[in-house]
Amino acid sequence: MGKQDEPLHVSSKAELKRREKQQKKAKSGGFESLGLSPNVYRGIKRKGYRVPTPIQRKTMPLILSGNDVVAMARTGSGKTAAFLVPMLERLKQHEPQGGVRALILSPTRDLALQTLKFTKELGKFTDLRISLLVGGDSMETQFEELAQNPDIIIATPGRLMHHLSEVDDMTLRTVEYVVFDEADCLFDMGFAEQLHKILAQLSENRQTLLFSATLPSVLAEFAKAGLRDPQLVRLDVDNKISPDLKLVFFTLRQEEKNAALLYLVREQISSDEQSLIFVSTRHHVEFLNVLFREEGIEPSVCYGEMDQDARKIHISRFRARKTMFLIVTDVAARGIDIPLLDNVINWDFPPKPKIFVHRVGRAARAGRTGAAFSFVTSEDLPNLLDLHLFLSKPIRAAPTEEEVLLDKEGVFSKIDNAIASGETVYGRLPQTVIDLASDRIRETIDSSADLISLQKTCSNAFRMYSKSKPLPSKESIRRAKDLPREGLHPIFKNILEGGELKALAFSERLKTFRPKQTILEAEGETAKSKHRQGPRQWVDVMKRKRAVHEEVINLVHKQRSAKHVEEELPLENISPKGKNMKGTRGLKKRKTASFKDEEFYINSVPTNHHTEAGLAVKGDQGFGSNRLDNAVLDLVADDSSGMQKHKSVYHWDKRGKKYVKLNNGDRVTASGKIKTESGAKVKTNKTGIYKKWKERSHNKISLKGISLGDHDGEAMNRAGAGNQRFSGNKRKFGAGKNKHSVPNAHVRTEVKNLDQIRKERQKKATRIQTMKNQPKRGKKKSGKKGNRGKANETDAIPFLFPKEFQRRQQTHSAFYKGDLPCFETMARGLKKHLKRLNAPKHWMLDKLGGAFAPKPSSGPHKSRECLPLILILRNRLKYALTYREVISILMQRHVLVDGKVRTDKTYPAGFMDVVSIPKTNENFRLLYDTKGRFRLHSVRDEEAKYKLCKVRSVQFGQKGIPYLNTYDGRTIRYPDPLIKANDTIKLDLETNKIADFIKFDVGNVVMVTGGRNRGRVGVIKNREKHKGSFETIHVQDATGHEFATRLCNVFTIGKGTKPWLSLPKGKGIKLSIIEEARKRLASQAAVTA
To answer: Which domain holds residue 71?
Structure first.
């Protein structure tokens, strides 16, 4: 009995240990303590999250309990997951008859795309369907998404309102979970009209959440959101920016900004660090983009009115670290999430402290360090003071060169201690550095006509920007005039030596030099030295005048300095630690003699007045305004039309016969038009887009909580579950083993609507009438074997199964037209693998080779020696994820091959072809590497204007006209008589004429395009001719290695040893395994050293 009881005792011990472990996990404060469902918890663990962030720990229990929540935390603190995880937990799974149950509104397209990506990752193990509705995308594509009956809609207000006005069967009454992401921006003037109509269609029993990095404590400004007893969660009110972020402020003139920016990019910022550059308008974005490219730096750009496809391409290139700089405006940057961003550069200082927090919050995320560099002009000094009042941080000027010369070590030690204690130091850049960079930029601009025109446009745009941006507080404007003169910024303390510091100190003294004598006294002294009597009397007059006025002037200076010391109290004591900068002793004496009792005294102005004023959604009254009825767009627009909207709007009152000023939030809808995110104005009534799509696709949108009842509903369910854009996981809805979690959810409903019944009856009547009119068959026997009158068993298909017959006919015609994808064609041999052939498309999208890879269309190149455009855009450049996105890019005529627009996704691009994408200013040439693989080699614009072609033959046509054929299928008439077969011609792609040619001779450099040595580059050493066999070419590369190949595999690329085009990395030199290992070890040793 004891032996039988022993295993039971062991199992109970194991069970006890397992329960204790679970209890420890539940008490650990992780996501386990929230009681999430297994599918949601798996998605969180897959993302790598272990412990909730402070904002998640505070808000998730409140949201899961059903409360309305208003949350504020700094950028990068995990706010998106804070509302996505409770949403996934509440929805759990897809409900075919549930309609739209969750709505997430974002102010910008980029933020909506980022939220969509994050939602898919967290909901990977659920079957929830997601639809993205943003401006810039096709309405028909979004109709298809809505027809899949999504559970979650992520949208921008303009496009969502466009859909609501277009589709009758679309309603938001079933929405039970609403999120306003970046709520302070959503409730501003720019979205007032859209939100007014959207909120009117939402249910009153919804749960409303407001999230942003900057929110006021007074919720009266957000009363229109319909909050019911909201719970306010505000974190990081004192630390609004990351403590790991280093703030650097440079004072300079407006015309010196370009030079300072290039100096920072080249000298201060490492080449392996990614940086975000903020400018005021889109014109500055275009100017800096051209300037950077002229200087050999390739940036990415993004602004508000940029084309959606171009914006995706630029941001994807920056995320893939193909470019290290992203130039953006405030309108476009809100929502761009770059996880590994290192630096932020404020080319234009932000007009509001709240915008500064959003800008610099892109760096120093998730425990990483970062730096924020800001350029401050004399006009921006009041904004700098407002910013530090908002941040509750003290500020001081950098010590002057004279102070540094007197006690260099002591001054810098004080500055280091001040920075360590949280103070901000602002200073100048070295003038020598600015002068050198300015001369370089001036030469670059003068040599480029584009930069000259763009510079003029930028100056006009900045003038409009200065008029439209909000003004700082009057108190800061007054105090900025009394700020002390600053010296060099402390980050340059190790750059300048003693001699340079003395020279700078002398130049600064010259700037502030004011002679005591007036011009009259100076002339008098000159006359005295020359023994002239005229102006001497003026000297005596000025001496008597100075003796009388000097005491009064000195008294006024003393009063001003004392007043300045008294007014330093609000700024210096703004630090949480109470550390003063100037006049500390005098202030303490005044404080002890004050009548205020610090324990019981109640001030008329709250201690956090400046912080709340900066967070509030205010009107054009500037920083410090207390009006709550006005709300303007936080971000100053980056184009002229947007700047015009920031000004006061006047509307003609027909009854009063006068112009009346509209308050922020007021709407004038007499025109009956709305403006979408793409900038297009559309009518609020129906435009017929949805009706045309419905007739063409035989589909419809039904978001009233009714399941799909179309005759193709089952096929749509399979497509919706297989398409990753609508589903958050890889489960195949209604196919195979992965059934839907709801019993019989995959079964199509048998309830038919009126249209389906009418259509079915019509089909039946047509089928019966057709069969009646057919002659009887099978009785007459004629012909050789008597089979002419016998009916074939496929003859009944058109009458008994019209849909099957139509599908076969379409497949048959598509096969011969070449429209049928390769995975839908019938394979030879055994048919056991037909299940894979009929699989959804996205199964095969990532395959580059094999039977299921996209095949190139017929062309001059062999099928194994070319790349179709779909592989170039999707697999090589990563500009698209699916067939649909590739077709969208090509149909918008964004891709050129050899200077001509190509819209065929399977167009074969071969060796030496030039692929250009004007939207991104990129050019690539298809070359081979030493391992025989295609390489998209980036080339400059000058090199992209021509290509090299190998001559196949030279012949004479009709009337003796000479012409030549090239291996890429070109025919060129009247070539140079010296050109022969196997020579190489340099073809101008613009004029399609021969610019030059290279003879196939010994001593010229060639590239091997076939065989085992494909991709190697070398010089022809010898040519062996063999009658009746292949000719052999001996080639020697740059390292001295010699190899042989056939004549047909050699392509001449230059005269002598200098090629006519740039080569990929490695210059066509093939290394052995040992040589590669030695090279790799040498590079590692150099890095460690």
So the answer is: 52-237+684-722
